[in-house]
Amino acid sequence: MASSTDSPDAHQDLLASSSTLQIDWSWKKWQSRVSLASEPSNPIYIIHYSAWRSSHIIVKSASSGTTIGTGTLHAISINADYTVHGRKGKLKALKRWKTEYTHLSDAYATGSSPATMRWTSSSNFRTWDFICLDEQQMPVAKFSANWWAIKNTASIEFLGPKATSEAARDEIVVTGLTLFNCMVLRVNNLGSLFGAVFARPGPIKEGEQGEIGKKTGDETRKDV
């Protein structure tokens, strides 16, 4: 008999009952899975990684296989691009040499305009943390990776009144994974050093948004 957690509705019930997700990088080559920390055997998202596709990170629903979002990194630019449910967005550096990024959020918006979010970072000998702050500079999520277990697990802790919001979680999973991989690329890529030198850091301006917020039309894609 199938487990009660096999259905999409059951997965959503599990998602709403906890504020911490676990990322398992050791699950399969070029793939990882994201589950509740309390239910590691029942993934909510499957993450596909590729160095050769235009979207280097593809986040899919584990239950339906549909695409939740994508992340795109750049060999030289220190900014990154992403989509969430087909809507385009940008993770833009606010500083050249310090990990501080911004993105425009639909999930955390309180009015008709997207909310301006800010990502900061802290690290020590063991962990690398990325903190997402809302427009009131209150933390809404923390992405934590262990330096010595980077191929195994990481966690995303959700905070505040939208800690159990499905839309907020989808957005943070996509942007958090994209930012983390962007910083891993920056640390290991000489091209990013030149990108930082010539970058124009700062808030996302209206003219820079371009196609941000426009539907891509591939949000239900099931191919890898």
Compact overview of the structure:
The chain has 224 residues and is an alpha+beta fold. The protein has helices at residues 8-16, 166-188, 190-198, 206-209, and strands at residues 20-28, 31-36, 43-49, 57-61, 67-72, 80-84, 87-93, 100-105, 115-123, 127-133, 139-146, 153-158. A 12-stranded antiparallel barrel has the order 1-2-3-4-5-6-7-8-9-10-11-12.
Order of helices and strands: HEEEEEEEEEEEEHHH
Helical percentage: 10-25%
Kindly provide the radius of gyration, computed on alpha-carbon positions and rounded to a whole number of angstroms: 17 Å
Q: Biggest sheet, strands in spatial order? A: 1-2-3-4-5-6-7-8-9-10-11-12
What is the strand content? Answer: 35-45%
Question: Helix tally?
Answer: 4
- Please tally the β strands and state the result: 12
Tell me the structural class: alpha+beta
Determine the N-to-C terminus distance. 30 Å
The low-pLDDT segments are: 1-8, 10-18, 218-224
Shape: globular
Summarize model confidence as the mean pLDDT: 80
Could you give a short account of the major beta sheet? Answer: 12 strands, antiparallel, barrel
Describe it.
The protein contains four helices and twelve strands. The protein has helices at 8-16, 166-188, 190-198, 206-209; strands at 20-28, 31-36, 43-49, 57-61, 67-72, 80-84, 87-93, 100-105, 115-123, 127-133, 139-146, 153-158. It has a twelve-stranded antiparallel barrel with strand order 1-2-3-4-5-6-7-8-9-10-11-12. The chain is globular and about 45 Å long.
Helices, strands, pairings?
Blueprint: H1 8-16, E1 20-28, E2 31-36, E3 43-49, E4 57-61, E5 67-72, E6 80-84, E7 87-93, E8 100-105, E9 115-123, E10 127-133, E11 139-146, E12 153-158, H2 166-188, H3 190-198, H4 206-209
Antiparallel strand pairs: 1-2, 1-12, 2-3, 3-4, 4-5, 5-6, 6-7, 7-8, 8-9, 9-10, 10-11, 11-12
Helix pairs in contact: 2-3
